[in-house]
Write a structure and sequence with these properties.
The protein has helices at 20-32, 41-54, 86-97, 101-108, 150-169, 184-196, 200-203, 212-228, 236-243, 246-261, 270-282, 301-307, 324-342, 346-349, and strands at 64-70, 112-117, 130-132, 174-180, 265-267, 290-292. The chain is an alpha/beta fold. The longest helix has 20 residues, at 150-169. Bound molecules: alpha-ribazole-5'-phosphate and nicotinic acid. Alpha-ribazole-5'-phosphate (RBZ) is lined by residues 81-83, 87, 91, 179-186, 207-208, 320-322. Alpha-ribazole-5'-phosphate binds next to helix 3, strand 4 and helix 6. InterPro entries: Nict_dMeBzImd_PRibTrfase, Nict_dMeBzImd_PRibTrfase_bact, Nict_dMeBzImd_PRibTrfase_N, Nict_dMeBzImd_PRibTrfase_sf.
């Protein structure tokens, strides 16, 4: 008999299986639409993939939710970002006032946007649209200690799961996780190196705009962190607790919860992909529920996408985060559904089919 997991082990439960018959029905429909078979390229594959996720021949993406998880990083003491730590809390206020890139992208597309404040050094205080789940002002500096205590880690994972439950409760058909946390490209790179076993040099990039010297310093900081936690990183959840951040753990929790609930997740750039890789390592069945939005300009992103066998939808040289790349790619998914659902078949339109 399989033992019932503890509530704190919820993330060990597998994903909901995909609905293969709905995907097969969608593939048959695609072959009947008035176009040469395959002519809509990856838009056809996306519609079929969404059909097997949603368990219906005609998938729909009218309602989506974006949750931006914010948190500060102890590793900022090592001078790893081009921007000061205060920006994390300041940007939480900017999200609430509607002035950030993700605020515009959400508003423009009628997508629900919420922010979860998991702990910032510069406390923005209570704000409309911001859920306060502050675990600490920041994580610990992971060059000398685990980023999170076990209790903080559990609460951060649960914060991601709770956001997915709110999205599902509001009828969302797609979930986008965003992040805000100055220094989090360092955490994402360290986590990726810890999970994959790559040297820091391949994962450290400019983030918000470090110069070559800054990137070299960042790589050295990551190497020190990897040395500090050597021998403790075999379990992916433990790698995430030691080298991640509050928002990275919440996003990993959200990936797993989406997959368990059967809600597709559109993955953003470098940071969200690092958290998604941790989620897939923690629970491999999660991979089926992830769609990849864009190729970030952050140099390590290509390695992460390759590890996940992921082909992103767009490549616009974005390097912002906040979920912005996913929000920019969302219209493509919506158009894939509209084409799939709205085009006439050869029979309906009286158009002659291909020879033979
Ligand atoms: C004004 C501003 C808005 C942002 N929105 C997202 N990020 C992005 O930059 C940060 C990661 O880069 P690094 O590791 O180099 O600090 C994260 O907060 C990420 O979301 C921002 C950064 C800034 C400065
Ligand atoms: O791709 C990302 O997620 C990213 C890259 C640079 C800075 N912030 C986020």
């Amino acid at each position: 008999m399989t033992p019932t997991p503890n509530e704190s082990d919820w993330w060990r439960q597998p994903a909901k299986p995909l609905h293969r018959p709905a995907g097969e029905a969608a593939a048959r429909r695609q072959a009947q639409l008035t176009k040469p078979p395959g002519a809509l390229g990856r838009l056809e594959a996306i519609a079929i993939q969404l059909a097997s996720m949603q368990g219906r021949e005609r998938p729909a993406l009218e309602r989506a939710q974006i949750t931006v998880f914010a948190g500060d990083h102890g590793v900022m003491a090592e001078g790893v970002s081009a921007f000061p730590q205060a920006v994390t809390g300041e940007m939480v206020k900017n999200f609430a006032r509607g002035g950030a890139a993700i605020s515009v992208l959400a508003r423009e597309q009628g997508v629900r946007l919420e922010v979860v404040d998991l702990g910032t050094v510069n406390d923005p205080g209570p704000l409309d649209g911001v859920i306060r789940l502050r675990l600490a002002p920041s994580t610990a500096n992971f060059t000398s200690a685990p980023a999170m205590t076990e209790s903080q880690f559990e609460q951060a994972l649960a914060a991601g799961r709770a956001a997915v439950a709110r999205a599902a409760g509001a009828g969302a058909q797609l979930f986008i996780a965003g992040e805000m946390g100055i220094g989090n490209t360092t955490a994402a790179a360290a986590l990726a190196c810890g999970l994959i076993g790559l040297p820091a040099q391949l994962m450290a990039g400019p983030g918000t705009g470090l110069d070559a010297e800054g990137v070299a310093r960042k790589a050295a900081v990551i190497d020190r962190a990897l040395a500090c936690h050597a021998g403790q990183l075999a379990e992916p959840a433990e790698a995430l607790r030691r080298l991640g951040g509050f928002e990275l753990a919440a996003i990993a929790g959200a990936c797993i919860a989406c997959a368990q609930k059967g809600l597709p997740m559109l993955v953003d750039g470098f940071i969200v992909t690092a958290a998604a890789l941790a989620a897939v390592r923690m629970q491999p069945t999660v991979r089926d529920w992830l769609l990849f939005a864009h190729a970030s300009a952050e140099p390590g992103h290509g390695h992460l996408l390759q590890m996940l066998g992921a082909q992103p939808l767009i490549d616009l040289n974005l390097r912002l985060g906040e979920g912005s790349g996913a929000a920019v790619a969302l219209p493509l998914l919506r158009l894939a559904c509209a084409l799939h659902n709205g085009m006439a078949t050869f029979a309906e339109a009286g158009v002659s089919e291909k020879h033979g």
